[in-house]
């Protein structure tokens, strides 16, 4: 099948590769090289399906999110309010880590992996390439794999935790070489999925995701207990901000090496989608990161010095944004005179809503004339998930009284302007402690 031409004085050896094998090699390389964004317009990258319960409601949600700039209309990605919502979600994620009794340090890894990290990442690629090209000569396969670090030494969703392993030894001094402790980071990763525009399912394209990662170092004796602990914490955290907490579920799994893990899902109208993964990685990756002498990896667990096992907790914040948008959409009745209609309300959790308060100016008798326009403005604020609307009139200049309207109850109450700050602060604080 493969023939090597007789080497002349200035000729180089050439391989004759069957076209089918060449296509498989190209498909394998395309899985790494392709950099086209996969985010579908308005869906945040989720693969939308046109069947299933609640699909009509999803279309209404998609239109609302594009109209109110949570999603970019006609283009992939998040709009200004969607980016702000993701920022709130990230802040809450960091706050949840800070509440842990054991030390968790902030980490930051490079978007482009260095040589040591690249070796660990491309080891997975080499296994994948060999599985798809079993008849490829070892010399040509090795040559093709040497090209990978040149073209795409980028971190991916599956390998986001690897950059934290490089900082393990240096961070041991911060904890006096005692276990357990964790490293947390948030950043952009790449992911691969089949390209729907091509008939070949083996060809994938790459998009971006904003991911959260907690890498937890613990002894082998207690790593199972910590996996159960973080599973409870993470599932409780996702459900805390949801109107329908039962839509967040978990499912156990084992990888090819028999390592235990748990996937957290959200039930979208089109089906379940992965939002977070917890997995016990053992000590394999850590030993590969520091080959040779493992004495510098040892840390104290009680009276013993042990090489820690690694627990990876990786979440998809972009998927979480879409999950909470789906969860928060509600239909409420709105009455205007003798007419009754339905209005759409995004009831995001007070901790997550991007804009807490809107201020509207009303002037004297014009307020009554413009009542219809004022109600339309309130509907817009409800669709933007704004918690409270403050109406300031000419009378406010005389007595300091403003009208405060709630998004959730639509009730209006009169309040002195000096009490607004304390009221809003206490409201948000109480929502965080629920």
TrEMBL record:
<dbReference type="InterPro" id="IPR045864">
    <property type="entry name" value="aa-tRNA-synth_II/BPL/LPL"/>
</dbReference>
<dbReference type="InterPro" id="IPR027031">
    <property type="entry name" value="Gly-tRNA_synthase/POLG2"/>
</dbReference>
<feature type="domain" description="Anticodon-binding">
    <location>
        <begin position="381"/>
        <end position="425"/>
    </location>
</feature>
<dbReference type="InterPro" id="IPR004154">
    <property type="entry name" value="Anticodon-bd"/>
</dbReference>
<dbReference type="Pfam" id="PF03129">
    <property type="entry name" value="HGTP_anticodon"/>
</dbReference>
<protein>
    <submittedName>
        <fullName>DNA polymerase gamma 2, accessory subunit</fullName>
    </submittedName>
</protein>
<dbReference type="GO" id="GO:0005739">
    <property type="term" value="C:mitochondrion"/>
</dbReference>
<dbReference type="GO" id="GO:0006264">
    <property type="term" value="P:mitochondrial DNA replication"/>
</dbReference>
<dbReference type="InterPro" id="IPR036621">
    <property type="entry name" value="Anticodon-bd_dom_sf"/>
</dbReference>
């Amino acid at each position: 099948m493969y023939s090597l031409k007789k080497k002349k004085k200035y000729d180089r050896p050439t391989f004759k590769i069957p076209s089918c094998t060449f296509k498989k090699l190209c498909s394998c390389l395309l899985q790494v090289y392709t950099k086209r964004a996969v985010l579908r317009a308005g869906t945040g990258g989720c693969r939308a399906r046109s069947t299933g319960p609640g699909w009509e409601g999803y279309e209404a949600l998609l239109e609302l999110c594009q109209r109110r700039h949570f999603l970019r209309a006609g283009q992939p990605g998040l709009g200004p309010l969607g980016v702000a919502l993701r920022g709130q979600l990230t802040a809450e994620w960091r706050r949840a880590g800070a509440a842990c009794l054991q030390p968790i340090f902030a980490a930051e890894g490079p978007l482009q992996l260095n040589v040591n990290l690249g070796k660990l990442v491309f080891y997975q690629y080499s296994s994948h390439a060999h599985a798809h090209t079993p008849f490829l000569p070892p010399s040509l396969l090795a040559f093709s794999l040497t090209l990978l670090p040149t073209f795409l030494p980028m971190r991916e969703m599956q390998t986001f935790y690897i950059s934290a392993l490089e900082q393990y030894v240096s961070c041991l001094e911060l904890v006096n070489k005692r276990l357990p402790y964790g490293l947390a980071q948030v950043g952009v990763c790449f992911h691969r999925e089949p390209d729907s525009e091509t008939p070949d399912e083996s060809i994938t394209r790459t998009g971006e995701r904003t991911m959260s990662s907690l890498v937890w170092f613990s002894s082998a004796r207690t790593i199972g207990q910590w996996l159960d602990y973080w599973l409870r914490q993470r599932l409780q955290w996702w459900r805390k901000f949801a109107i329908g907490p039962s839509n967040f579920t978990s499912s156990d799994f084992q990888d090819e090496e028999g390592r235990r893990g748990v996937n957290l899902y959200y039930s979208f109208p089109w089906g379940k989608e992965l939002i977070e993964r917890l997995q016990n990685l053992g000590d394999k990756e850590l030993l590969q990161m520091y080959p040779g002498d493992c004495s510098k990896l040892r840390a104290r667990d009680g009276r013993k010095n042990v090489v820690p096992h690694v627990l990876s907790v990786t979440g998809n914040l972009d998927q979480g944004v879409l999950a909470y948008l789906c969860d928060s959409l509600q239909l409420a009745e709105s009455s205007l005179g003798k007419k009754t209609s339905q209005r759409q309300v995004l009831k995001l959790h007070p901790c997550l809503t991007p804009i807490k308060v809107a201020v509207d100016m009303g002037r004297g008798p014009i307020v009554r004339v413009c009542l219809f326009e004022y109600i339309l403005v309130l509907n817009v604020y409800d669709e933007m998930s704004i918690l409270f609307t403050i109406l300031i009139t000419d009378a406010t200049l005389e007595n300091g009284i403003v009208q405060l309207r709630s998004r959730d109850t639509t009730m209006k109450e009169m309040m002195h302007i000096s009490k607004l700050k304390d009221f809003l602060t206490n409201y948000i604080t109480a929502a965080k402690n629920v």
